[in-house]
Amino acid sequence: MDQLSSEELYWEYLGKQRMWGENIHHVFGHTLRMILCNMSNYSKIPKFHLYSCHDSTLMLLLYALGCFDGCWPPFAADLILELYIDEEARSTHDEDMTHSGSQNSYLLNHYLTPALDALWFRVLYLGKTVPLGCLWKIPYDNGDRYNAGFVPLHFLYDRWRPSAPALEEVEVA
């Protein structure tokens, strides 16, 4: 019954099933963009965000993450997105920036991309780590991190590209 109810809700919000992937950005794009901007601007915003939402909103977010199991979320379900900084990658990036500067769009993109590589995130749903690396079929550069559920933030940008802000619009510390 939960699965039928959740599928009916998706039909209402997103249309025919073959169109769900395309329509999620039209229906839920503002929320996806807010999440990406908050994660990218981690140094300028509070360290902790708490949002409350209806279960139907949670289902759309799970679908956008590619980890919706087809069942209606249980009462008091929680979804946690954790952001981590790879200090080693960040320090390498900072050293590169002292030699280049950001005079034009190319250099700005060069500046932002490594900063996104220094950011990793993981998702916990109902208290359990969601294996996004496996679900998204991401090649393993760091097996220990992927096994613990960590994924580089730029993969989330790639996944949510239609809703994501242009990299030039995001200020990354």
From TrEMBL:
Gene Ontology terms, MF aspect: phosphatase activity
Domain of life: Eukaryota
Transmembrane segments: none
Source species of the chain: Paragonimus westermani
Name under which the protein is recorded: Lysophosphatidic acid phosphatase type 6
InterPro entries: His_PPase_superfam (IPR029033), Histidine_acid_phosphatase (IPR050645)
